[in-house]
């Protein structure tokens, strides 16, 4: 495990708010040199703290008006890795989490309408080893990846 100093933490907070912020801008905000910013970012990437830089996509502007969170309960004998492989292939599924508690998998999906979301639910229910799928419609997204949406 890598130790993070106060500057590392502040740098990560800046990147979480805007992954496109320049090294020069980070250096100014943290009152450190640009070369120190580059060195710190490289170290954080090499140690897997920073895994990548992703855009926050406005799915509604892409015509995907329906969003849902699905929780999935599996039978006790099923291998979760096989089910994860099946779920990962679905282009409408955005995030997949293996969980502990009442459910085994939590996922979010985004599609053009509720009919397509229902088709996704039926597909998941047909996967061998899936015992139960619960569904919650998402009506608004307020925060993602530690960035408050405006």
- Measured by DSSP, the beta-strand proportion falls in 15-25%
- What order do the SSEs take from the amino end to the carboxyl end, as H and E? HHHEHEEHEEE
Strand tally, please? 6
Structural class: alpha+beta
The level-1 CATH class of the largest domain: Alpha Beta
Question: Radius of gyration from the CA trace?
Answer: 19 Å
Largest sheet: 4 strands, antiparallel
The number of helical segments is: 5
Strand order, main sheet: write it out. 2-3-1-4
What CATH architecture of the largest domain do you see?
2-Layer Sandwich
How helix-rich are the residues, as a percent range? 25-40%
**Any low-confidence stretches, pLDDT <50, length ≥5?**
none
Give the CATH superfamily of the largest domain. Answer: Lrp/AsnC effector binding domain/regulation of amino acid metabolism (RAM) domain
Shape: elongated
Kindly report how far apart the N and C termini lie. Answer: 35 Å
- CATH topology title of the largest domain: Alpha-Beta Plaits
Mean residue pLDDT: 91
| Domains, number | 2
């Amino acid at each position: 495990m890598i130790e993070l100093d106060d500057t590392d933490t502040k740098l990560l907070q800046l990147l979480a708010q805007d992954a496109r912020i320049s090294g020069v801008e980070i250096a100014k905000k943290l009152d450190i040199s640009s070369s120190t910013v580059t060195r710190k970012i490289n170290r954080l990437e090499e140690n897997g703290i920073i895994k990548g830089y992703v855009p926050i996509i406005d799915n509604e502007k892409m015509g995907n008006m329906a969003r849902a969170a699905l929780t999935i309960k599996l039978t006790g004998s099923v291998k979760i890795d096989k089910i994860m492989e099946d779920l990962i292939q679905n282009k409408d599924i955005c995030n997949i989490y293996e969980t502990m508690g009442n459910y085994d998998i939590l996922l979010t999906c985004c599609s053009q309408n509720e009919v397509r979301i229902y088709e996704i639910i039926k597909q998941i229910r047909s996967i061998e080893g899936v015992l139960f799928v619960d569904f919650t419609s998402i009506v608004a997204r307020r925060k993602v990846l530690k960035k408050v949406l405006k």
